[in-house]
């Protein structure tokens, strides 16, 4: 196990190097000169030269690349161009609100998706199965913006059950008061595609030989579904959940923007609007690193779920 983890971590280095080079090229060659962005339209050549010197972009490209690598290794991406705040502090303070929404959302989505998928697969081919699939297709056809506007207007503005938007200071206040409605909206949006996907995972296992063997031994249908089928269907389910976790941090920007949640997704949008390259570069690198780490954790979870899985 330890040897496998060390080998996988070692294999991440070339991938991370490729990400670093790609980000460096995009922001230094394709992204244009940041000095012109910061100086404004009325700036003179002297002020632009001073900004270039302060940012270090007047150095040769190999020097700039080495500075970028040192920033990644030290987790210090300098100061935000828009606010002057340290980038590491921005990410650290924005990560908490995002996780307050996304972790409960992911947990509820996964548990409900598994339970409903097993229930629908249990009555596969019936009228109930068809009705649920039609409802899922209809739900997937509605834009997330529609869900946000309808829930925010109906439940928050008209009924007053939740705050329209905002964010507090305490964890429990945020979780129980401000994050509840965004979590419900995210659940309403994601449960339909999740149910369809998990149902397909379960149905792929239902026709396997080990299921017929378990039934032939006299095991009840519920035990077959909840114990034998679920254990094998858990592998693609784990893959789906773990692969989506890094992207969720960025993908929840609409919820964070509409509800005024100071999270990572909202910060990315603000950074793009302000051309705040240090923040964008830092988040890009961190998301890439998180993706590789979650891929490693996914493989380790495979073996935890099914010890027969060999890590190679």
UniProtKB/TrEMBL annotation:
Which positions, given as ranges, span the membrane? 12-31, 101-124, 131-155, 175-195, 233-259, 279-298
Origin species, per record, is: Duganella vulcania
Q: What is this protein called?
A: ABC transporter permease subunit
Bilayer topology term: Multi-pass membrane protein
Q: Which GO terms describe its cellular component?
A: plasma membrane
Name the lineage. Answer: Bacteria, Pseudomonadati, Pseudomonadota, Betaproteobacteria, Burkholderiales
Q: Where is the signal peptide?
A: none
**Record-linked Pfam families:** BPD_transp_1, BPD_transp_1_N
State the family it belongs to.
Belongs to the binding-protein-dependent transport system permease family.
State a single Gene Ontology molecular function: dipeptide transmembrane transporter activity
Q: Which UniProt keywords apply?
A: Cell membrane, Membrane, Transmembrane, Transmembrane helix, Transport
Query: Where does the UniProt annotation locate this protein?
Result: Cell membrane
Task: Report the SUPFAM superfamilies cross-referenced here.
Answer: MetI-like
Q: InterPro entries this protein is in? A: BPD_transp_1_N, MetI-like, MetI-like_sf
The residues covered by the ABC transmembrane type-1 domain are: 95-298
Q: What is its main location?
A: membrane
Q: Which PROSITE patterns match?
A: ABC_TM1
